[in-house]
Amino acid sequence: MDPAALQDWQAVVVQAVAHVLRPFFAFNQHNSLLFWPFLLLTVALSLLTFALAQHSFRRDFLKEYRQSYFTRAVWGHASAKADYRFYLVNAIVFPLLFAPLIVSGAWIGQFLAEGLAGLFGPGGMLGTGVWVNIAYTIVFFLAYDFGRYLGHWVQHRFDLLWQFHKVHHSAEVLTPFTNFRAHPVDLICMHSAPALLTGLVQGVFAWASDGSGYYLFFGLHIFVFAYNLVANLRHSHVWLSYGPVLSRLLISPAQHQIHHSTQQRHWGRNIGFALAIWDRLFGTLYVPASREHFEMGLGDGSEAQFHGVWRMYWQPVKELWQRRRQGPQAMDRGLGRPG
Questions:
Q1: 3-class secondary structure per residue, the chain
Q2: Is residue 56 part of a domain?
Q3: Looking at the whole model, is its pTM more than 0.85?
């Protein structure tokens, strides 16, 4: 074999192996919720939350803590086991088959900047400097977070998309791996909406400034990094509430757990991710007055239908096909979890 061809083949093999192994080393990837600092802080916050709830560090504190949050009933549940398997498989499948379908924010930004320059001439009126970067950092994050809200909201509002989002809501127990329990159609919606809005922000700032950038920490947008510090607790059974005032500004882990509740009064509530302002604006905010107890899942007994990798991929398509065969009335018979 030609040496150049052999080198190319070896490079392909190395890339393929690296792609397969990547999900096993997420603890060392700063853009993953399983990045080790995020996991350590998750444990620390859960310990602190448990201590405050118990009002003491008793002798059997750690034993009680483990029995509360690290039980086989949660981590060994069929739902959790399905999460582990789906995390590994989809981490390999999604980037290869579905990621190219996501809207490119960078492309939108470049297209818009060139369009504005063509219409109005060279920009640059904002110049450069700290305040431009601060403004860009804030506006970019607002657009990103609203995009995530919008991508999430449409999946609760429109029955067609809800059938795919049901995969995520079929989880009967919550662990950090439930973050990754999302059908490819779900992921395309959740990534494309913020990419579209942040692309518009990028384009405007690229044209209006002489070079602006948002502030980073560990290679992430600084506000996204701050959000990731508590994000794993959203998919957990640790009741961490921000209280009646701050919960109207930020979505607490407790509020997102309510979003997973089977109780109808919780359906379509707390759709936001970091900020609660979008839920306030669109009437989907739910602030608990105190600790609430509820089961997680779909609430119709169909959760087990999704507790398998192949089922998570295929079940939404199967259900939509069956409903289509039943006629238009079956397709329009109402929303599963209205927003």
A1: CCHHHHHHHHHHHHHHHHHHHHHHHHHHCCCCCCCHHHHHHHHHHHHHHHHHHHCCCCCCHHHHHHHHHCCHHHHCCHHHHHHHHHHHHHHHHHHHHCHHHCCCHHHHHHHHHHHHHHHHCCCCCCECCHHHHHHHHHHHHHHHHHHHHHHHHHHHHCHHHHHHHHHHHCCCCCCHHHHHCCCHHHHHHHHHHHHHHHHHHHHHHHHHECCCCCCEECCEEHHHHHHHHHHHHHCCCCCCCCHHHHCCCECCHHHHHHHCECCHHHCCCCCCCCECHHHHHHCCCCCCCCCCCCCECCCCCCHHHHCCHHHHHHHHHHHHHHHHHCCHHHHCCCCCCCC
A2: no
A3: yes
